[in-house]
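User: My collaborator and I are trying to settle a disagreement about how two of our proteins should look. Neither of us wants to argue from intuition anymore, so we agreed to look at predicted structures for both before our next call. Could you fold the first one, then the second, and keep them clearly separated?

Assistant: That sounds like a sensible way to settle it. I'll keep them separate. The first protein:
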Amino acid sequence: MAVSIDTVYQRVLAIANKEQRGYITPQEFNLFANQAQMKIFENYFYELDKFLRIPGNDSAYSDRINILEEKIAFFEKNKVAMSLVDGDSYLTEEVTNGDFAAFADFDTTSYELGVIQVAGQTETTLASGALTLPGKASTGTRVELTNGTTQFFGLDTGRFYNLTYTITTAGTTNLRYFNNDSSAYTSLPATVGSHTVIVEAKGDRLFIRNADTTPANTVVFSSISIKEVVQDTATLPTDVYRLGTVFYNNGTKNIRTENITAKEADLMEQTALYKASELRPVYVRLSATRLRFYPANVSPVRSISNVNCNYVAQPTTAYWGYNITLGQATYNQATTTNFQLHPSEETSLVFDILELAGIMMEDANLVNIANVEEAAKTQQELT
């Protein structure tokens, strides 16, 4: 159901032109139409708040709260997915070395914190600021990125990491990574260029391996990095007007995520007893379009498939479509967008638009006509 914008326009023109008050152009009407639609729409929420404080009745068709909820229901959307992003790119663990210059002093027993370990100098080549993994008969070669020792950070089992690397020479397609268990490997993109792969940690150690058994089939990296995926920030759907309930699905059930203020989040993070948990998640509204979740890390990791929300959508922009023929605007249904409001709002739209048109034309009588009709409608609803 919707309100025909052409019907509203024709009625507005008929009333405005009854006493030769003037013509309202399509451009002017479209501007007034959307302002009137938003005024009526926004008023739903104020009226609902007011009537919730006033006892209603048990009638199925005349209870004022039920009527308002029916009008708002046109715009309600449920369980809509949100897109997830890494929280402002702040990450808890990172190992990177763009030119591998520090590798020159490495051997298999001496490492530096925060720099990639080269596992076996005889199996890798460090030259011209690059890391080369050649092929090797029977075994191939590998570089160890994490090992959990005091010199190196280790991956946390069950968490997710972005493995990002740039290849400048691609001499094999047999590139893979493995996490602790060398028998359980996953193939990696091996073409020239930058690549990012999400790794779920099965243990603290992570290796990249050139499994090619031909020594000449080398892979040259200009950079490698490991960053923990912190999916704690979400972008809301673009048509959100009033946000309702936010959910996180942990694979077993939908968990309601509570809205708190940034100040409350700071206090909560400092208090172990009240700190957010996977079974009691919360979020802070960062802006009109972004949310931040606490705790940052959950299992399974947040994704577009398990974070969603209920909300009231903003009405689509109403538009009276037209073509110009011999200097006259003629209705074009194909390019028209009707009002999304409940059909009962047709009269309100007509007189709200008339009021705006009267202000534009500096016609007090037209404004008065609209005000009288609106006042009568308001009085009818209150009595």
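The second protein, kept apart from the first:
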Amino acid sequence: MKLPTKLPSPNVKLGKLPSPNLKLSAPKLKLGSSKPKVGSGKPKPGSRKLKLGSPNLKLSAPSLKLGAASLKGLGKGLGRHGGSDVVGLDIQPGFVAAVEASVNGTIVAARAATVPLPADTMRDGEVLDEAALGQALRELFAESKLGKRVRVGVANQRTVLRTLELPPVTDHKELSAAVAFQAQDQVPMPLGNAVLDFHPLGIVDTPAGPRQRVVLVAAQRDMVERLLAAVRAAGLTPAGVDLSAFALIRSLYRHEAEQTGRVLYLNVDGLSNLAIAEGTICRFTRVVGSGLEGMATDLAERRGISLLDARSRLAEADLTEPPLPEPAPPAPAGPETYAEAEPLGGEETAPLSAEEAAARERDMSYAELSALDSAATSEEAPAASDADVWAVLDNGIREISGEVRNSLDFHRSQDGGGEVSHVVLSGAAQDIPGFATALQGALGVEVRAADLGVADGGLDSGVSPHRLAVATGLAVTEAPQ
């Protein structure tokens, strides 16, 4: 599929969000010129190719060129099979997960490894520090011995998913030209800085007569370039870029004969990613918050502790137990005494008066004074109490549930929108006892725990399977039916 790199960008209008069934196993399509007319299928010189995977958006394909670099041979080997030769790579704020998966009736994480990321390496799903990310990826793959061909997930506000209704043309060249023309009004970003892909869903009957429905996806080119630059800097070979929401659906979809309505998949981890699906078909997707990494940042700022400590405290939280009361503050020292650090010999001494303490300080060396200051600072450093952790998690759950409700309201208001039967929760939040129950109470919709298959002995020590849903879906190209 060929994509133009520069298309005219008139006034941007937001189109409606996807509503039809999404089947992404079509032949290659060619996108038309920068000023297309239906029936003109010749691409503009210098256009860039992009191939749509199945059943998901593929933002990379043979000869996908981003900047000066070129990715060769991408998009090969697609179909109903495990991605044993491709590692799914989920990069979120705070952590990275890499998974090799297999498919045998269900998708199973065969081998997996994770690594934490330094603060400000990623923010809101976008790369801030390419060097830090590249170094973390290099270390992860060197230690895990996973394959170096990777399919990378994207989840941020710089991606767009739209459904178009076009004249009922079936000729690929004519359809490509029509899509390129409509993209000018439907994509809320300059098309000269967009990576585009689309897939026809077939002819449908509408009040206006037969129409060809097409799913159109766009991602900002500079965002994708920064992500792939860090991946290549780690010595990895990008085999594709996919929407994380599509990967989430692939890995967690379970066929249920009695299932009616749509399912909302919610991954709460480094960020909060939402996807509404009917079967394996994504109808709507949106990043709805900063996830547990944002909560950890809030906790660290509240208590003046390190981000690593805040992450640990959240991971140890238990929302099924009430928080312990705050300890009573120590009584202040009297005005006539000076609390002195215990001598090195451990012998007890009587408290010094203010005059005696001042005289001793005058006789101390700089090193001795610095040691006293360090000890005092260490003793005074506040720890995050259970009440602090509860408050941060409670606020975070309220914010996430509010964003999810807004997304559901918007989805219902669109053509083809509908209700969801339940929520499937995944991510690190699933490891926190009571999180799903609290989220269900805030949403008023049933919340179920995600069920991800993991091969025996496939996980490194300390790796939670709940954090692998996106990476596992990225490692394969189709959900089992």
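Some points you might bring to the call about the second protein. The first helix runs from residue 130 to 144. Residues 259-322+364-450 form a domain with the Nucleotidyltransferase; domain 5 fold (CATH 3.30.420.40).
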